[in-house]
Amino acid sequence: MPERTVVIASRTGLHARPAKLFVQAAAAQGMPVRIRIGAGKSVPATSMLAVMALGAGHGAEVVLEAEGPGADSALDSLAELLSRDLDAEEAPDA
Amino acid sequence: MPEPVAGPVPGSASESGSESGTGSGTGTGTGTGTSPETGTGSASGTGTGRFASGTLRGLGVGPGRTAGRVFRMAGPLPLPDPVREADPDRELGEALRALEAVSAELAARASAASDPAASAILEAQSFIAADPGLLESVQENVAAGMGAAHALDAACAGHREALLAAGGLFAERAADLDDIRNRAVAAVLGLPVPGVPDPGHPFVLVAEDLSPADTAGLDTRTVLALVTEKGGPTSHTAILARALGLPAVVACPGAMRVGEGTWAAVDGTTGEVRTGIGEEEAAGILRLAAADRLRQAASSGPGRTADGHPVELLLNIGSAADLAPGADAEGVGLFRTEFLFLDRREEPGFDEQVAAYEAVFRAFPGGKVVVRTLDAGSDKPLPFLGAAPEPNPALGVRGLRVARGRPGVLDTQLDAIAEAARVSGAQPWVMAPMVSTVAEADDFAARARARGITRVGAMIEVPAAALRADRLLERLDFLSIGTNDLSQYAFAADRQHGGLADLLDPWQPGLLALIAGCARAGLAAGKPVGVCGEAAADPLLAPVLAGLGVTSLSMSAPGLAPVRDALARRTLQRCREDARLALDADGPERAREAVAADR
After folding, report:
1. Shortest Cα distance from B347 to chain A (angstroms)?
2. Average pLDDT score, chain B
């Protein structure tokens, strides 16, 4: 199954706003995408609760997985999203 | 001076409670007369007899003082007795409709909220209420025979546990689920949603913890202050209280035991909540608070004590975008340059850096701008640095230490600062973070001066550097004390650790002694020593710092007016006396009390 490993760049981790942006993007892919940490259990990338419960902090390495036609480009775009600091638009030191 | 009022709640963090030994029992209806009273306090009762006068202490997260009667958030809804439901389809339909309605309501509140931070939080919550994982759990619970209310309750509880298990910031989102649970269960049961009380007059809102939805909907005309038993300095309650400009105290043990309708004084600067004051005292505090606001709004110009001793008031910024128009500051005391480097696979180029620094220099023509070179490392990892993970990142290769392995990053940054200074005609002050030794200071100064930078300094965050401030100032032109990191390293207490917040209190006399040593070295050398941590924005502590000999205070824009006002109301001699009182105290509460009593 195609996979991508990516390091969470957002300062607060995959939490709050970054988690929401990621989950929305995953839902827009039109195919089931799952996310996990290392050898842990994978969870649906469309569930914000499940994604936040991974506890993926800043610098954590996560693995994205999907299958089927278009899986590679879907994974690429989601991996690119996670490698950006999605908190950067928020007020610093809030 | 009379002893402060005893803290009546067991486990209260108040040091004063253990001192006086007369703290009355919680909820025993002990008369107010048994507690010692503060000087001006009236001994009149609470109206309910539930709670005697006392001082609770938490973390002040929204500055300012106020007073009013306490009203508590309504508690969670009682669930009906569980029965095996006969019609699972109907139960599921009810539960899902309730979640849908909650999601829609939160979305509507998000678009109605005027504050962008509040709006973003509500939007995320609306999203969680429609989460496929949550819907799936509800379905499973109904399939297992639960009714709608119990299915919703159990589903939210399950996901709540998972978030708590994730810890840290993730655990703070547990309050979101509590709120969604309360709203959805109320909808199913046809009961009003627990929420902000409406006593029909201004009040102090006390809660276990406040959900983002509650704080976003708060009416600042009727809510005087927020006090929560739980929460921390980064909780939503804290962030939103600051955005709304409400005095707020979080992590305040005993707050939920304060009787409904009790008069209380809340000081969001010191974190003190005094209960059992009389209505007259409350009115006096409100008059003082109104006078504070008027005076602060009217104050302007450079920082001065009452007798004209200058204490520069400066801004902490992350980029030119943080330079709020109209911020009444004498310059920039801390220009963090990390923003250029975050979110980057490769080091930002020379030209890009020049443009960013030049924008800030040009914003303060002829004014002071203190640039801090890149403060990164394995605790704030940047991909292009390629730092290996370390077991103790805060004690690892961070700040100036990065230059040990990657001197090119620092050299390029210094080149860019020097070039930006040249083209803008500015004379920036440039300092390195995490300097520990004279040798490190020497090396940094040599690199900076070789590029024509004339004002070279160091951040004081490491206790060893504070202890050698005099030697550092033989090589450097100035020092700037980062109190947050200096606390962390002096008290061996992680800045992120909520349970150790008392050790990180900037009023800790041990910290003040380190600051005093640096300031003394600065006075002896005739060179500036500033403070650029959170401590600088505490209007009670600012005069203490000035009295210790600190020459500048740097903070974010909202802190400037209260600090300017606090300085203007004291002579330098008074500041020195306050500094002596604070240094002489045995703990932060004592230090604060001694100085506040002198107010």
Report:
1. 15
2. 84
